[in-house]
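chain below, 304 aa
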Amino acid sequence: MGTSMLAAVIAMLAIAAVFCVMLVIANVKLHVEVDPKQAAIEACLPGANCGGCGLAGCSAFAKAVFQQATPVDGCTVGGPGVAKAIADILGVEVTTSYPFRPVIHCGATESDRLGRGNYTGEPTCAAAAVVGGVQGCTWGCLGFGDCVAACEYDAMTLVDGLPRIDYEKCVGCGACVRVCPREIIEQIPFKVERMMVVACSNHDPAKAVRDVCKVGCIGCSACARAIQEVFTIENNLAVINYDKVSETTDFAPAQAKCPMKSMIVFGKPLPRYEEELAGVAAVTESPAPPQPPRPTAEDMNWRG
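prediction:
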């Protein structure tokens, strides 16, 4: 019995040794040399492997950039800093780029949504979108937080039936965009820290919109008349052309004209007015003169 067991052990060790030799040979024969520049590109990437660039991961992105199959600023997580580093490695110039971050094309809280159904199914947006009848609006946010669950950076929370984004934590990976069954989350270029967004996705006529939502866009064209070069009306819905938005674009006239208050500012919150005054007082010898109160985040219809 002992001899049989010893023979079996020796046989297994011999088989293992043969496989090890085969793996070593395969590793040598199948080894693919990676260009040093491609390796350097991958080294400067954040390593999130989030797929926000549209590729399988950072290695695939590095290879695509090196082969000039994708632009150097395609890493949404790395942003302009990584784009500049890649451009330096390749010896090319990179045009002005901006970080892409998600925004929500729906501004209707629980109380704003009309025609709510008695949905008792699985509490996920994916399931509710298939069943239907959850609410009157068939375009807007379902409010179950699939996007919140998909975010690996704890950058999203659900408040009053709507996702809120913490832009201090958000890296722009696009996970929330991919899981939304209503496709109301979009990555846009943040040319400034706070970007204006049409918080509606409803393409129905005005009366149908009013029947299902208190704050939905009715396609009245008031915003397009206020800022013609930025706004258009497409299939009953106001749309912002972010290619034509600059760092100095003033959205205030369009926002003031919107009868439904469908335009919302997304991004980092405005500094508190009291904190600004405290900073001024700290560097001046005499008290600052009284200033008119600035609009609060609520006044600006801000979402972050």
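Residues 272-298 have pLDDT under 50 and may be disordered. Residues 100-270 form a domain with the Alpha-Beta Plaits fold (CATH 3.30.70.20).
thats it, cya
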